[in-house]
Specification:
The complex is a heterodimer of chains A (about 210) and B (about 200).
Chain A lengths: L1 H20 L11 H6 L3 H22 L8 H26 L1 H7 L2 H4 L4 H10 L5 H31 L1 E2 L2 E2 L12 H27 L1
Antiparallel strand pairs in A: 1-2
Chain B lengths: L1 H16 L10 H10 L3 H26 L5 H27 L1 H7 L3 H5 L2 H13 L3 H23 L2 H4 L11 H19 L6
Helix pairs in contact in B: 1-8, 3-4, 3-7, 3-8, 4-5, 7-8
The chains are: A mainly alpha (about 210), B mainly alpha (about 200).
């Protein structure tokens, strides 16, 4: 009974970490570049999360089979090589179904191969946890990242051009500065601060 | 004189006007990871510069072969990663053999300096913008030095960004993003135009 409870708590912790407490973009600062440059409208963000999720999930899944006995130096190369191999079918598939979307991603699509999430996650998680927990962690980290990117892009689009998904929202004023990378940095910084405040508030309420 | 002017302009553009972090955000996550660890930031920046400069030269020759096939965009990243992996291993072996103390200091994070968005992104940017071997090298070197500049500008304010005097919600990572954004705005003022990604 106690083992079952521990197992449930551990899974709950992994899920909450991926979605909230260690959210890859709002807390840990991973894979920021495409968000800063490309996520200035909702349609770009949708394309970004699809390509990120595809490459990251399958790369980490295959990388989990890389044995620990291989020297660390070589393991790192193998992870990125796996990423580059996963990129091949991913780009063919997405180019077939969403050619304009792939064009919009530009150089950021192949850059997902060396994204910091793959390089750091593969080493920090694989050799400490079971395969099941590792998969749970990857899935919920990706969901956490995707959700944060979509919300961020929607707010950024509203602020920068007064539209959402290309449709007018009736905003009285908008600020083009948020379309630029530096605007993206500032807005993401504000998002991260707001997110931390909300987490703190929730923690205090639960303690009471 | 014209050639010297071109070299200076290419280097200036790569280091300042189109700084890889402040204008393109490439390698920001790596910068955050490294700034948190606070270990030999300058050494890390220089190793990124070395790898970017060396890889930019190799990319020039690779691109000559890859340009023959119009579908090379599908497997070009794989080719870049294989060459990058070879450069990484050769560099580690050379350091281990000829500079063991440096190898001891850098072995924990040299992999992050080789396999990150800044290096791979630099190769894609250079491939799009440069034509001659000289341009490839100067641009690659400039991008690496631009990364060093970004690392330095982050390192000098690190204590303030993570200070307990800063409000808890903004302390550390959020403040770092806002700081990079403000610097990015200043650097953008040097160019005044949009990057073509």
């Amino acid at each position: 009974m106690s083992n079952d409870n521990n197992k449930d708590n551990s899974c709950k912790k992994i899920i909450l970490n991926g979605l909230l407490n260690k959210n890859p973009i709002l807390v840990s600062g991973m894979v920021i570049a495409p968000v800063i440059v490309l996520a200035n409208n909702f349609s770009n963000a949708v394309m970004l999360v699809i390509s990120f999720s595809l490459i990251t999930f399958f790369t980490l899944l295959v990388s989990s089979f890389v044995p620990k006995s291989i020297v660390y130096t070589i393991r790192i190369i193998l992870y990125t090589l796996i990423g580059a191999l996963v990129y091949v079918p991913a780009v063919i598939l997405l180019k077939y179904f969403m050619p304009d979307g792939v064009e919009a991603l530009g150089i950021f699509f192949p850059l997902f191969i060396t994204n910091s999430f793959i390089v750091t996650r593969s080493e920090s998680m694989f050799f400490r946890e079971t395969k099941g927990k590792m998969l749970l962690d990857i899935v919920f980290c990706i969901i956490g990242y995707d959700a944060a990117v979509l919300i961020f892009a929607a707010v950024r689009e509203i602020l920068a051009s007064g539209t959402i998904g290309g449709r007018m929202t009736g905003m009285p004023a908008f600020f083009r500065v948020f379309e630029r990378p530096f605007g993206g940095f500032i807005l993401l910084g504000l998002f991260a601060a707001l997110f931390r405040s909300i987490l703190l508030l929730v923690k205090r309420v639960r303690q009471k | 004189m014209n050639m010297l002017g071109n070299i200076i302009m290419t280097a200036f553009t790569a280091v300042f006007a189109e700084n890889i972090i402040f204008s393109g955000a490439l390698g920001t996550s790596t910068l955050i990871i490294v700034s948190r660890s606070r270990k030999n930031l300058l050494g890390f920046g220089l190793s990124v510069t070395y790898i970017t400069a060396l890889m930019s030269v190799l990319t020039f020759f690779l691109n000559k072969a890859l340009k023959i096939d119009e579908n090379s965009y599908i497997y070009a990243p794989l080719v870049y990663i294989i060459i990058l992996g070879a450069v990484y291993i050769i560099t580690l072996l050379c350091m281990w053999r000829f500079a063991p103390r440096m190898f001891g200091r850098m072995k924990k994070y040299i992999h992050i300096s080789a396999f990150n968005c800044a290096v791979l992104g630099a190769l894609f940017l250079i491939s799009e913008r440069c034509e001659t071997l000289g341009e490839y090298f100067i641009h690659g070197l400039g991008i690496g030095l631009g990364f060093v500049l970004a690392v330095y500008l982050t390192a000098i304010v690190y204590d303030r960004l993570y200070s307990e005097k800063a409000p808890y919600s903004f302390r550390g990572y959020p403040l770092l993003l806002v700081y990079i954004g403000i610097l990015g705005m200043a650097f953008w003022g040097l160019s005044g135009y949009t990057l073509k990604f």
